[in-house]
Amino acid sequence: MGRFQGIFGIILILGLAYLCSNNRKKINFRLVISGISLQVLIALLIFKVGPVFWFFQQLGKAMGKLEQFASQGAAFVYGGIAVEQAPGTIGNYVNGGFVFAFNVTAAIILVCSLVAILYHFGVMQRIVAVIARAMNVIMRVSGAEALSNVASAFVGQIEAQVMIRPYLNSMTKSELLASMSGSLACIAGGILVVYSNMGLAAGLDLAPKLITASLMAAPGALVIAKIVFPETEKSMTMDTIKLEVKSQYVNVIDAITHGASDGFKIAMNVIAMIIGFIALIAFLDWGLLKIGHLFNADFNLSLDWIFGKIFYPVAWAMGVPASDVNNVATLLGQKLTINEFVAFKHLTDKSVPIMTEKGLLIVSIAICGFANFSSVGMQIGGIGVLAPERRGDLASLGLKALFCGTLASYLSATIAGILI
């Protein structure tokens, strides 16, 4: 029963998408079946084929090395700062002490610089185009939505839309929703490296799980989005996979400086969000605790308690072992309503502990995505700048995209859980 418990999750996820569909008669079941099959294939290759799993393990170790390289640059700025490590000992940042703000900013800045270099030489565009072309053939989705969804596995949610900027004004509403959903279901490469290294700092090997999540999210988001909003119009890019390879940078130095600058902006935004949200959570928990004590002196009401109850059925249906269901539900709630950084912080620092390997696999994939309420606002604002004429459509599709992006992550996690 344990292995196939996730079957209930797949039925629940697809059932919710079907119930929310705006045109059930137009659902392309070939697309749905091929998309889910592609997700299953990705999970099987990574977790069941030895050489492939080994490759992604090595990729994970390389991601850990990136953090070490990033620390070399950050050590020049932050060197000598004392940090608490094991109880009763004091280390320092240069010699391996983990300081969230320093480690996170350094890794994001380095990865953004590397991505900018790859983009300048056309490597990133060609990788995205090849994978998107395969998805276009397998799932029969349009070129624009395939490009956007694949790009979201490598770059940020707004940067992925920049890659299809020429098509934004002519995209159908179904394509636009699919594109937005993919950006919310996936995670940018720089952030994925950060989460992986947060796990390493806590003795958790999350890299293969997170890479799997990002790869499975692209077809998963298309499946859910095309159930919720089936295509009924003629796409201008149905058989077209065309990506502008020309670099926006003058030379490689310009690429590095722009990448570092963009990375710093992202890192500062992350730090600001973490401080703001965790402080707000502390404030709300204090108020909820007082309310709970009005009814019972032993009732410690909190956001975690509320999330654990609301998301409990979802976590169980996804196949999470009984010992971890409540804590996984808590993390699912934190990720959706607050943001994924808070959820990953509580997962990796074990303030919300996950005891089983299967529970860790499922929750790692389920919370590995940008789908939260604040990201919807960022998408509407960011894409609205790229295509001002579509701002009304973006606003009307925002919550649908959040719904689709969330279900896509849950679908990937459930499939992976069944296969393990």
TrEMBL record:
GO terms for molecular function: nucleoside transmembrane transporter activity; symporter activity. It is a multi-pass membrane protein. It is found in: Cell membrane. The chain crosses the membrane at residues 6-21, 33-56, 98-119, 176-198, 210-229, 266-289, 360-387, 399-419. It comes from the Bacteria. Residues 8-80 form the Concentrative nucleoside transporter N-terminal domain. PANTHER family: SODIUM/NUCLEOSIDE COTRANSPORTER (PTHR10590), SOLUTE CARRIER FAMILY 28 MEMBER 3 (PTHR10590:SF4). This is NupC/NupG family nucleoside CNT transporter. It comes from Chitinophaga oryziterrae. The lineage of its organism: Bacteria, Pseudomonadati, Bacteroidota, Chitinophagia, Chitinophagales.
